[in-house]
Structures are given as C-alpha cells and as structure tokens.
Amino acid sequence: MDKHVLLVEDEVNIIEAMRFLLTRDGWKVGTHSDGATAVSAIRDARPDLVVLDYMLPGKSGIEILTELRALPDFAGLPVLMLTARGQSRDRELAERAGVNRFMTKPFSNSEVLNAVRDLVRV
User: Where's the Response regulatory domain (predicted)?
Assistant: First the structure.
C-alpha cells in the first residue's frame, strides 16, 4: 500500500493503539506529539493523511489545521480530527478550519479504518 499517515497526538495509549491498528492495515505510520512544531513535522513528512488531535500541547489542532490550509501544498491534504470533546461548537470550528472528517473519542477500530480509507481512497 505504501500510504503514509502522520498521527499528531499526545496521548501515548492512543498513539500505540492507532499505530497498531493502522500498521496492521498496511499503513506507514509516523507520530508527532507537540502542537507547536506539528506544522513543520507535517511539511517534512508529506503524509497522505494527517490524523490530528483537537487538544495538543503548544498549539491546538484547530490552529494547526488553519495553518495547513493556508499553505498551497497542504490545502487539500486530508485531515481526520480526533477529540475527546464532542460539543457541536468544536465540530463547527473544525469544519470552518477545513477538516475533512471529525471523530469523537472513544471510537471503534472499524470507524477509524473506514474514515482513513475513505479519506485516502485506497
């Protein structure tokens, strides 16, 4: 498959679970945990998809997404945003910032795999 996902997440348990799930499905998975340097990490990695946490240390997922959408090379990059906060206001902010899919934690394995596959069309 050789599709690359960059997981921008700071919770170790979620990182490990997502890495296991996606790797088992044939994805190359990179991780990054610091919001302040996430845009640089995404630019360097050039992934096919970003799975982005809403709340990160240093910079929020919304701020990261807004910065990505302002960069011509990353304006169309598929982004799946994960959040422990399920309020409609959070979803609206993410949609206005340009998120492709929004998922509330906890989520099922099949829900994540379906979202990732849909966003990258494998």
Answer: 4-120
Q: Which of 60, 57, 42 is nearest to 6 (CA)?
A: 42
User: What tokens appear for 48 in the block?
Assistant: 């096919």
Spell out the residues 6+ positions from residue 61 whose beta carbon is closer than 8 angstroms to its own.
Answer: 8, 35, 52, 53, 54, 55, 81, 83, 94
Helix (H, G, I), strand (E, B) or coil at 5: strand
Percent of the chain with pLDDT over 90: 86
Which among 35, 28, 27 is positioned nearest to 53, based on CA atoms? 35
pLDDT tens column, 12-22: 999 999 999 99
DSSP state of 121: T
Find out whether 81 and 55 touch, Cβ atoms under 8 Å. Answer: no
